[in-house]
Design goal:
This protein has 521 residues and is mainly α. The chain is built from 20 helices and no strands.
Length: 521
């Protein structure tokens, strides 16, 4: 009788878990739909009006959109189940040891190995001539590792984020005076591609784990800013590399429109690409899996149930990223290049700017790492920064950046004429906003410039630049850097708005009724 009751209880528990899983996955897919559908509708509207496209290209794009929805849903679910818990457990375990050398060594190794496996970085290395692929990858990875160490030291020793960022970007712009013009955009874009869908969840959750060892009121606030600092490391590393190798050019190869005979050929196009991304994502996940296994055996000793949950999350992450990257590269990238070329070929080529801004507004919401960041910001600030407000601020910032990037494509203006004033404004704002908004803003710049920016907006700019007769290396490349810059301004402006609201509401509130003020000040 007791065994029967226990068996019934176990079955009910399994049913509840299965039901929770189904509800969670359904919610992730709804979020993915809300992210992908707007950009899909914009592209279709253009294809049926001002920029007619071949039917097979449109069909391939729609197939890619479906893969993005499914892949994003699985990826974000896997992140919740695996990537975030791993980072938090590792961060907490290494700080509990009370050994500074261990914290620094583990941080450096995490930064190097996870970055080496970042799919976006592999794509970048393939397209940069003059420097061996592995040399570029290792240089960028070491840059991330060193700056992740710096970020951990900032958390442990409570160094003000604004001072570090001021010093780092001052070094960046001083060094940029000596970098070859043809390689300058590569350096700035490298800071965006290294903070991709694999790196961001792990780094963010590690920051939460490390900051948890502190008991002061600002510990949670200081968990932000890791992505920001890890985005600076690659820029400096690639600039130094360019001085050593003195490359003559850093031209990108534009994506050609692939035409297929029928739907079977289109299916074959996707199926042929899947094995490549199976390997790429396996390479991306392998260092994290090995790292977690070592920590589990040496320090964590998590329960079997927790380990099983993390393993299942890794599987969802793997499948989701394979589908996401396959869809983006096979369907979205060619469509982006085609639309850019078609828009720039119009008599009214200025239409490229507002169309680019509209696309930028919605493309950022499709970035997987953006969902990870917004969720963590909402939780750690106890709702002080609503996910919707953060999302709108990011979208506005990226929209402005794409508009500026398309202006560069049409006019050939040097990228430094945009980056220097933009970063100057962002740095000035640091001294007027609550510290947490500075960290969130610079983190947002890194996560906004992910796979969607590199595989849709960059081809859009490249296709437009070729059609306009510009220099692709100088004028088109750099769009990722622009996307990473403008959120620094818009998110900090959001911080000013919240700060003003809090001050206005403070006299009418009792001291114990203002927990948000404690969080953001």
């Amino acid at each position: 009788m007791a065994k029967d009751k226990k068996s019934v209880a176990m079955r009910e528990s399994l049913k509840k878990r299965r039901r929770r899983f189904q509800l969670s996955l359904a919610e992730k897919w709804r979020e993915a739909l809300r992210s992908v559908v707007p950009i899909t509708l914009i592209v279709l509207a253009l294809c049926f009006t001002v920029t007619p496209a071949p039917p097979d290209t449109v069909l391939s794009f729609l197939a890619a959109a479906a893969m993005l929805v499914i892949g994003m849903g699985l990826f974000t679910l896997g992140t919740d189940l695996a990537m975030t818990p791993i980072g938090e457990h590792v961060g907490s375990a290494m700080t509990r040891s009370k050994k500074l050398w261990l914290v620094l060594m583990v941080s450096f190794l995490v930064g190097v190995f996870v970055t080496m496996a970042e799919p976006d970085l592999q794509v970048l290395a393939e397209q940069v001539p003059g420097v061996p692929n592995m040399t570029l990858v290792l240089s960028v990875a070491v840059g991330v590792g060193l700056f992740l160490v710096l970020a951990m030291l900032r958390i442990l020793f409570r160094v003000r984020m604004s001072l570090l960022l001021l010093g780092c970007y001052a070094a960046v712009f001083v060094l940029s005076c000596f970098v070859p013009d043809s390689f300058l955009a590569v350096a700035f874009d490298s800071g965006g591609v290294t903070t991709g869908p694999m790196t961001v969840p792990f780094i963010l959750s590690m920051g939460v784990g490390v900051s948890a060892i502190r008991s002061d009121a600002n510990a949670e606030n200081d968990s932000f800013g890791l992505v920001a600092l890890c985005s600076v490391g690659p820029i400096l590393a690639v600039m130094v590399l360019s001085l050593i190798f003195q490359p003559e050019s850093a031209a990108y190869t534009s994506t050609e429109l692939v035409l297929v005979e029928d739907t079977r050929a289109m299916a074959a196009l996707y199926l042929d690409a899947v094995p490549y991304y199976l390997g790429e994502v396996a390479l991306a996940l392998a260092p994290i899996v090995v790292f977690f296994a070592l920590f589990q055996g040496l320090a964590l000793r998590l329960s079997a149930g927790e380990v099983l949950r993390i393993v299942s999350g890794l599987i969802y992450t793997y499948v989701g990223l394979v589908l996401f990257l396959t869809g983006v590269n096979v369907g979205f990238m060619p469509m982006g290049a085609y639309l850019g070329s078609a828009l720039a070929s119009l008599k009214e080529s200025w239409i490229l700017v507002p169309v680019g801004m509209l696309m930028g507004y919605y493309v950022v919401s499709a970035e997987p790492a953006v969902h990870v960041l917004s969720k963590q910001v909402y939780e750690l600030t106890a709702g002080a920064v609503p996910r919707r407000a953060l999302g709108i601020s990011l979208s506005v910032g990226v929209s402005a950046s794409v508009g500026l990037a398309m202006t560069r494509v049409l006019t050939g203006v040097d990228i430094l004429y945009f980056l220097i004033p933009g970063y100057f404004i962002a740095i000035v704002l640091m001294f007027f906003v609550p510290p947490i908004f500075t960290s969130i803003a610079f983190d947002s710049g890194g996560v906004a410039s992910g796979p969607m920016a590199a595989t849709f907006l960059l081809p859009l700019a490249m296709g437009a630049c070729v059609a306009a007769g510009g220099d692709v290396t100088r004028d088109a490349f750099g769009v990722v850097a622009m996307v990473a810059m403008t959120p620094l301004i818009t998110i900090q402006i959001l911080g000013l708005v919240f700060k003003r609201k809090q001050r206005a509401a403070q006299p009418a509130q009792a001291p114990q009724a203002a927990p948000v003020e404690e969080i953001i000040e």
